[in-house]
Amino acid sequence: MTSSNDLSKLEADLLSEIAGAADLSAIEAVRVSALGKKGRVSELMSRLGSLPPEERKGFGQTVNTLKSKVADALDARKAVLEDAALDARLKTERADVTLPVRLGAELEGRIHPVSQVLDEVIEIFADMGFAVAEGPDIETDAMNFDKLNIPAEHPARQDHDTFYFSPKPDGTRLLLRTHTSPVQIRTMSNQKPPIRIIAPGRVYRCDSDQTHTPMFHQIEGLVIDESTHMGHLKWVLQEFCKAFFEVDEVKMRFRASHFPFTEPSMEVDVGAEAIGKPGKWLEILGCGMVHPNVLRNCGLDPEKYQGFAFGVGLDRLAMLKYGIPDLRPFFGGDLRWLRHYGFGVLDVPTLGGGISG
Ligand code: PHE
Asked: Beta strand 195-204 with 131-132: parallel, antiparallel or unpaired?
């Protein structure tokens, strides 16, 4: 089958088969039978070697032309059939975009309790006019300690079980911040009062048991103005606790304590009836009036400005509010834990809609 008559007949046959292919699998069958390894057009090519040399060139060209004609016709028909298939699908598969999100999709992912509680806390403080500030996890001694009125050799440095990096040639060492309080320094050094911020973030201490992990989360609060006093501090914390635990009244106890960066300093306990354990007190945060030395270290005049700061353990809040007994699995990455304690993606906390979604 090498005469030009035979070739025209093959071409006519193939083109009519292509035109007659009713669907994508039929067109694929034609393609294989024409251009596949053992296809009718490919076979012609393999005969090339047996032809007398003077005929080879002309024959080769003719077969190549046939080949590309057939390939073009296949492509064109395939495009038409694909369009038709898509049209048919669109006619039968209608997407009603007004339907609610399918439950399955909503359950696919869960929001981690720390993320959820962070959103809750931000929502509550944002409503009281606080902005969100941030600082780096890797800090200097100066930011984490010195400027917060914790000089070298101060016993508070030992309490913090700090993770240090290797010393640099000049002897200074970077560290993983042990609390979010360095963000107080960064904020006061970079902006003029009035200041009203919360600073959530990761903090690190070399410590591990049921209620301590080497990495955990805190939220720092800082308010600096000309006449801010302890009454404001107590009111802000009380409003926060009421909103957070979703109760009208919350019993709070301010216990005298000591932090080098606040004077006076207090630790705050809440009456555990807020979470259904009457008669018990739970410590949730440390706070106090910002120490004049700290204000001075940030270039603020303590004769003019004063204010308060507080530091809350975020993971602690999540454990208390949602009855999670052990801190360690918070960071274990176990999906079963997350499915149990996690939140739906649509449970966005808002003051209007109920803070826990
Ligand atoms: N930084 C303190 C801690 O980690 C908490 C704190 C913050 C206390 C601000 C007072 C004021 O323990």
From this structure: parallel
> What do you get for the CA distance between the two ends of the chain, in Å?
78
CA distances 8 to 1, 46, 342, Å, are 11, 18, 70
Residue located nearest, by CA, to atom 2 of ligand 1: 311
Residue 2 confidence (pLDDT): 62
How does pLDDT run across 26-69, given as a tens digit for each residue? Answer: 999 999 999 888 888 888 888 888 888 888 888 888 888 989 99
Residues near 214 by beta carbon (within 8 Å), at least 6 away in sequence = 163, 204, 205, 206, 207, 208
Ligand 1 atom closest to Cα of residue 180: 1
Residue whose CB lies within 8 A of the most ligand 1 atoms, among 143, 149, 175, 181, for a mutation test: 181
pTM: predicted TM-score of the whole model, two decimal places? 0.69
User: Does ligand 1 lie within 6 Å of residue 181's CB atom?
Assistant: yes
78 and 18 Cβ atoms separated by less than 8 Å = no
Residues 6+ apart with CB under 8 A from 151: 145
In 3-state terms, what secondary structure has residue 282? strand
Burial grade of 12 (CB within 10 A; 0-12, 13-18, 19 or more):
exposed
Nearest CA to ligand 1 atom 10: 287
Whether omega before 292 lies within 30 degrees of 0, making that bond cis, reads no
Rounded-to-integer distance, Cα 273 and Cα 280, Å: 7
